[in-house]
């Protein structure tokens, strides 16, 4: 509940410090006194955006601070999730500089506006004349039904499943798109891979083939050169081997008389043996070298295929071609894996959808079950506030299986009739402003018995009502205040008389400037204020007596 509100340098307010009661708090005052200004200041610490810089003193910053008693409202999780210090007496503060820069704090910890707004929605519900239009909103209508059906846990279970379902559907859609793109290039990838695979490339073969082709291409020249070398060494008139043999004979003859020449003879003998061996190898190599045009053609064809692939893929080696082949294989395999993943994910999405349908049907049944109770309770409350013939009808339509959304598959719609014999229709078509105000009050009075909301504010929802009906509206507000703090801004004395605490908002002129102020009224001041609300600025004895009777009735 809101314990204290401090407003500094906002609009017509210089410095205001208000402490509120835990029950029904009434704010009254003349039109234009500043009641809406106070509410506007309060909305700033509830996360509303600053629409303009309306400062009392343009040289100073504006500060709005609210102190809230929050124990018993199970808000610890919110503070933990947002890394904030949990205090049973929590302070929300907003500072706005003269340049328009805004800062927000929760228990002196800086927070962004979204976090402040999120906490504000858990602390205060502001219900104004204009807010009655939210009753036509499908989300609000569904919220009413779910709150009274106690569907919070079931809805959380459904939404957790629905979020998972949405994520998987989104992933499936991505995979399908990726699969379509991949399949477009799959044929080309497959063609490229098969083209390389068909050639059956072997690591290092290019160099061997190029060497073999070079040998085959020059086979005749090679044979001619080898034969020539063999001839010069062993067969010509001046053959090296014959000359060396003669030289060996001469040295051996000299060795008979010159022992030192024996070593030279041995060396000549070794050279002769080596040359004979060389000649044998030359002859063998010459015999192995053949002119084979068929083999040359075969190698040329093979190398041509390799060169063609290298040119196509912009590489220079078989090693690089083999790497491209492996890459193509991986890509083809990944496309195949995507198809398997799509198939698996399709099955998961199908199963999630089936689970969602089951939970959504349970949710729908819970909503259907509570609807008659809501209709009857609202009808009873409307009768209390003078709308004896009013009827609220709630239509709960179960949509088809493909219409699942974050809240199930129901279309909940409120229909209303304020008059006997009038068929219920959408409220925007059949309800006046005053009727909508009382209908909303009836609905909210029902909701507050099922939720732990610290504070509700009614901002002049008494439009179009008076007399006994106004008194009944006051009774309902008084009843609400037994479970929660209620702050009501009103022009009706019947409602004002029900307050546990009564505040008067007024303006005064000081130092050539108009100030908005507020004060808590004592017993005598309340009689006078309600008397003014009954008859005008200077209430007569009858008005004052009526005021006392209203207060006495409320006290009784």
Automatic annotation (TrEMBL):
The keyword Secreted does not apply. Residues 1-509 form the RecF/RecN/SMC N-terminal domain. Keywords: ATP-binding, Coiled coil, DNA damage, DNA repair, Nucleotide-binding. CDD domains: ABC_RecN. Residues 148-175, 328-355 form a coiled coil. InterPro entries: DNA_recomb/repair_RecN, P-loop_NTPase, RecF/RecN/SMC_N. SUPFAM superfamilies: P-loop containing nucleoside triphosphate hydrolases (SSF52540). Belongs to the RecN family. NCBIfam families: recN. This is DNA repair protein RecN. It comes from Paradesertivirga mongoliensis.
């Amino acid at each position: 509940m809101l314990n204290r509100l401090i407003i500094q340098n906002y609009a017509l307010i210089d410095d205001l410090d208000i402490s509120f009661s835990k029950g029904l708090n009434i704010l009254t005052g003349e039109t234009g006194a500043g009641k809406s200004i106070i509410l506007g200041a309060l909305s700033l610490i509830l996360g509303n955006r600053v629409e303009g810089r309306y400062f009392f003193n343009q040289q100073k910053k504006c500060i709005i601070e609210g102190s809230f008693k929050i124990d018993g409202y199970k808000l610890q999780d919110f503070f933990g999730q947002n890394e904030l210090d949990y205090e049973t007496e929590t302070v929300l503060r907003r500072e706005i500089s003269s340049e328009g820069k805004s800062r927000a704090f929760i228990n002196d910890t800086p927070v962004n506006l979204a976090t402040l707004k999120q906490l504000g929605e858990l602390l205060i519900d502001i219900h104004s004349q204009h807010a009655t239009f939210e009753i036509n909103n499908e989300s609000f209508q569904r919220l009413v039904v779910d709150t009274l059906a106690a569907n919070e846990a079931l809805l959380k279970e459904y939404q957790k499943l629905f979020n998972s379902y949405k994520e998987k559907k989104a992933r499936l859609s991505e995979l399908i798109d990726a699969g379509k793109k991949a399949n477009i290039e799959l044929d080309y990838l497959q063609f490229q891979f098969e083209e390389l695979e068909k050639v059956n490339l072997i690591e290092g073969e290019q160099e061997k083939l190029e060497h073999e082709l070079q040998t085959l291409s020059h086979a005749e020249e090679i044979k001619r050169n080898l034969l020539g070398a063999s001839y010069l060494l062993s067969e010509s008139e001046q053959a090296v081997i014959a000359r060396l043999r003669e030289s060996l004979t001469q040295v051996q003859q000299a060795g008979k008389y010159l022992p030192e020449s024996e070593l030279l003879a041995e060396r000549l003998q070794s050279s002769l043996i080596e040359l004979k061996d060389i000649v044998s190898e030359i002859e063998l190599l010459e015999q192995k070298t053949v002119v084979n045009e068929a083999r040359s053609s075969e190698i040329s064809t093979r190398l041509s295929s390799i060169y063609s692939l290298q040119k196509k893929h912009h590489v220079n080696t078989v090693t690089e071609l083999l790497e491209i082949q492996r890459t193509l294989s991986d890509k083809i395999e990944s496309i195949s894996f995507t198809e398997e993943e799509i198939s698996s994910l399709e099955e998961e999405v199908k199963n999630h959808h089936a689970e969602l349908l089951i939970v959504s049907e349970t949710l729908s049944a819970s909503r259907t079950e509570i609807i008659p109770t809501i209709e009857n309770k609202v009808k009873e409350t409307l009768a209390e506030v003078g709308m004896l013939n009013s009827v609220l009808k709630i239509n709960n339509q179960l949509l088809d299986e493909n219409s699942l959304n974050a809240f199930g598959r129901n279309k909940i719609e409120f229909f209303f009739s304020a008059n006997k014999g009038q068929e219920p229709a959408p409220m925007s078509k059949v309800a006046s402003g005053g009727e909508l105000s009382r209908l909303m009050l009836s609905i909210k009075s029902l909701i507050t018995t099922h939720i732990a909301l610290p504070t509700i504010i009614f901002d002049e929802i008494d439009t179009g009502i008076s007399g006994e009906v106004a008194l009944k509206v006051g009774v309902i507000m008084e009843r609400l205040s037994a479970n929660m703090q209620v702050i009501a801004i009103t022009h009706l004395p019947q409602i004002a008389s029900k307050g546990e605490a009564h505040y008067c908002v007024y303006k005064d002129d000081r130092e050539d400037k108009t100030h908005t102020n507020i004060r808590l009224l004592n017993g005598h001041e309340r009689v006078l204020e309600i008397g003014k609300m009954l008859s005008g600025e200077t209430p007569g004895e009858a008005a004052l007596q009526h005021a006392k009777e209203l207060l006495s009735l409320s006290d009784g």
